[in-house]
Structures are given as structure tokens and as C-alpha cells.
Amino acid sequence: MGVVGQSRTAFGAMLFLGFLGLLALVMGAQGGGFSDPSLLACGQESMQLTLSPGWEGNATFMLTAWDIEGKAHALQNDSECGLLVFGTSDGSRTVMVSYTGCYVFEWDGHYLMLVGLEETDAAGQKVLHEEKLLRCPVDLPALDAPSSSVCSAVLSQDRLLCASSPVSQGDCEVRGCCYDPRDRVMPCYFGNTVTARCTPDGHFSIAVSRDATLPPVILNSVQLASGHSTGCVPVVKNNAFVVYHFPLPACGTTFQVTGDQVIYENVLVASRDVKTGRLGSVTRDSTFRLHVRCSYSTIGSFIPLSVQVFTLPPLLAVSQPGPLSLELRVASDGSYTSYDADSDYQLMR
Predict the structure, then answer these.
(1) pLDDT value at position 185?
(2) What confidence tier does 54 reach under pLDDT thresholds 50, 70, 90?
């Protein structure tokens, strides 16, 4: 009986995976409450689905998922299945699912999860209102975890959210962000540097710290070099950071296809505050130019492969071999009509 039971389970799993494959083709063009790809966030350890306020329509809707045997289950908090469902103050609902949980399957280089909205009709019968096949790449590029100094340099009042809670330390750090388990409101935040990502849903995500340069960059002057449309402005900004999030093909992005990869590139720049006076001009601002390159695979699914960030190298030192001379002129009357003699600087010799 045990062998027969295992065979049936394996056979059922094969049928269900085949069903998922067909469903992925059929549902590719469907819309509805699940249609916005930005609602799905793929991490290294889990996927996270956010449903905007009003997604339920009314209380008769229930969020469901299918297991390996094709049975639907109501999605609710279940630590044994790696599932966490919670609401937020704005009325949205977030579902966080571990890749090792009960409802996620690995197939064809992706983690898959089938979710749906079931509605109870007037007769008390459950009717499937909408379904969506969630998919996340198995091999996502991971950024290095920032150093402790980069994280500790950010004051608590200057922190900006890098990933919505709840988020594991691993999923936070592979985004190149800082993690503080003591912070219950914002445990995952941007470090005191430049943080750039290529998202699985095809977006640039770029956060720039004011301390990315020395002296600090003027955040109000940071802008995309070629993108000036409505959607090409920062999505969030405070005294310490400016964050951009925009689709790959937008905001002046250039792209090229090389072999089996498509490469998207964009540039951020900042202007300098130059003060001009009677005797010349002076500025205390650094030259800032940030070049971000995202590479995606054109084979199979559109999978992010890498992100590269290029900054301007420091200016070369201006020097010339030879003797160094220093002349110090001091006058008590505000003019330079008389100079101190060498004997006046005995202590400086």
C-alpha cells in the first residue's frame, strides 16, 4: 500500500506540474487583481505577493493556493508550510511564502505557486473567480551584504525601506541592504552607499546616499541624465537618500543585445552648486555620475543575470617634482605693506 500510495502521489505531482505548464501559457495574457507584476517580489529564500486595498471586493472572496495533488487550500498563517499572511494599515494584504513550503514547486528553473480567489455564491457554492501562476527564478543574482560600517552610519531617522516586512535577513542582505532585527518597523533598510538592483519584473531599483561622494552629493540635484518624463522622478526621498524605481525600457534607458543577453543601461547625474564671485568661481561639491547596467537572459524566461554600477574615478592628483616654498604674510593693519623677517620665525625653523 505504501509503494502504491507513493506512486500515485508521484503520478499526481507529474500531472499537476503539467497542468501548471499549460496554465502558464493560457494565463499569460489574463488580467485582474493579480495582473500587476510589481505586486510580486522574488527573494533568495521566499516570494512575496502584495494585494492592493480593495482586492477582495467583498467578504465573500477567499485567497487560495493549490498543493502538489491539485487540492485548493485557504491561505492563512501556517509556519509548518512556510506561509505568512498579514495586512497593513493601508488595507493591502501581503502573502510571504517560503520556497521550501507546502505550495511552492520547482520546475523548469523557476519556483512556481498557483494562487486564486474563490468566491462563495448565493447558494453557498465556491466558485473560482480568478487565478494566477506566480513564478520566481531559481537563480537570482545576489548582491553582497553591506559592511557593518555602511549600516551603522545610517541614523535611525534617515532609514528608508529596502524591502517590506516581514523579510528574512538573507532576503534583505542579498538585495545589498542592511538588516536590523531590533527594528520592528523597518528591519531592512538602505546602507550608506549606492544600492542598485535589477528586479525580476523588469525594473531598475537605485538608491543613492548623500554620502556616496565626499563632500556629500546634493540629493535635490540628482536626476536621470536622459529621462525627464513624469515617471522618471524619485519614488521616495529624505534628507539622506534618494530612490528611483522605473521600468527598464523607460527614462532614457539604452539597450543592446549581445548573444543570449540583453543589456540595459542608464545614468544618474548631479549638478554642482558653483558660486561665482569677482575673482572667480568656487564649489565644494563633488562631480557625481552613476552608470548602472542590468543584464537579462533572452533564453527562456526573462531572468536578471547581473547588475553593475560604475562611478567616476577620483581626480588625479596635480603634482610636479621640485622644491616646495611657502610664504606667510602677516600684517596688523589689514594690509601687506611690511613683512616679518626670518628672525621672527625662530620657533618655526
Answers:
(1) 86
(2) low
pLDDT at position 3 is: 34
Burial 187-219 (b: 16+ CB within 10 A, else e): bbbbbbbbbbbbbbebbbbbbbbbbbbeeebbb
Q: Is pLDDT at 37 greater than 50 in this prediction?
A: no
CA separation (Å) from 262 to 17, 117, 139, 245, 310?
Answer: 29, 36, 17, 19, 18
Residues 281 and 275: beta-carbon distance below 8 Å: yes
How far, in Å, are 37, 42, 257 from residue 264 at the CA level? 19, 20, 9
Distance of alpha carbon 62 from alpha carbon 79, whole angstroms:
19
- The owner of cell 521616495 is 236
Task: Decide: 340 and 330 in contact? Cβ < 8 Å.
Answer: yes
